[in-house]
Amino acid sequence: MSYRGLTAALATQHGKQRAIAPAFAKALGLAVEVPCGIDTDALGTFTGETARPGTMREAARSKARLGMAAAGLPLGIASEGSFGPHPFMPFLAAGREMLVFIDDTRGIEVVEEALSEKTNFAALDLTPGADVAGFLTRTGFPSHALVLRSGGRITKGIDSHAELGRLLAAAPEGARLETDMRAHVNPTRMAEIGKLARRLVHRIATPCPACGTPGFGVIRSEAGLPCADCNTPTTLVRNLVSGCARCSHENRQPRSDGREAASPAECPECNP
After folding, report:
1. How many Cα atoms are found within 13 Å in the side-chain-facing hemisphere of 265?
2. How big is the chain by its Cα radius of gyration, in Å?
3. Which among 232, 165, 245 is positioned nearest to 203, based on CA atoms?
4. What is the pLDDT of residues 143-177, one digit of tens each?
5. Region entry Disordered: which residue ranges (predicted)?
6. How far is CA 168 from the centre of its chain?
7. Which of 161, 219, 232, 261 could lock onto 228 through a cystine, CB 3.0 to 4.6 A?
8. Contact 110, 214 (CB under 8 A)
9. Maximum alpha-carbon separation in the chain
10. What are the tens digits of pLDDT across the range 61-102?
11. At what angle do helices 187-204 and 17-28 cross, to 10 degrees?
12. How many C-beta neighbours within 10 Å does residue 21 have?
């Protein structure tokens, strides 16, 4: 099962190897190579010039395979992210990160993803009286870069007060400031990718109990946590199901926080 001494291709033009390569080297002894000349923006941009075709997983898979083809390697890694309102708390911003590892030697694809509220994702319309100073503080500028949409033009990677001041002075009414969510200019996002990389390598290092294939881990959750008062199944997660990247073996475990019941306030019978 060892990957020690081998190399995987990572398709990125935004420096993600800084967050991903150390985790793979430390846990698996697997080196990471970044092939030159791959335009990952062709698979989608945060600023919308290029729409992402298909799902996050499909885009990440395409990136990984581009890297594998360019490097001539059977192992590939790719990252994909998306940002917007939190799915359960819409007043909060959230980021979803995904990492895909492909091993064509074994015929497997291993995926880890995470949803996090730890993001500086935000935007500000530059209307009269807009609190630009507050926005800069909240978003971590200038260590975190910004994007300016102005008169049909998009300027990315703004990371100095001098540059921002010059652009704002020339910006027409209706311009908009946004956080630049590309990893190499967004340290908060880069840190989240690093955390996910450590989760992914742990999963890759976990063999299937049935066939020994790397990558055994959680593949889905099951709802139905019972109400503490009336035992009615709720929409809350009751079990986590782990599965193999290759065979059909699965294990079912209770949720990881040890919670065995939902409160009546979360029950469709007690609190309809």
Report:
1. 0
2. 22
3. 245
4. 999 999 998 899 999 999 999 999 999 998 889 99
5. 249-272
6. 31
7. 261
8. yes
9. 64
10. 999 999 999 999 999 999 999 999 988 888 899 999 999 999
11. 20
12. 20
Question: What CATH number was assigned to the domain covering residues 1-120+183-205?
Answer: 3.90.950.10
Domain ranges in the chain are: 1-120+183-205, 123-180, 210-272
Tell me: the pLDDT tens digits for 176-193? 999 999 999 999 999 999
State how beta strands 7-10 and 31-33 pair. parallel
Helix, strand counts (H, E) of the chain: 5, 12
Q: Beta-carbon neighbour count of residue 171 at 10 Å?
A: 18
Residue 30 near residue 53, CB atoms below 8 Å: no
On average, the pLDDT of the chain sits at 95
Q: Which two tokens stand for residue 99?
A: 């990492």
Instruction: Give ∠ CA 31-33-37 in degrees, rounded to 5.
Output: 175
Q: What is the pLDDT of residue 1?
A: 63
- Identity of residue 255: R
Strands (E), 18-89: 31-33, 75-85
Angle ∠(232,238,241) on CA atoms, nearest 5: 145
Contacts of 96 (CB under 8 A, 6+ apart): 56, 81, 82, 83, 113, 114, 115, 116
Contact between residue 244 and residue 216 where contact means Cβ atoms under 8 Å apart: yes
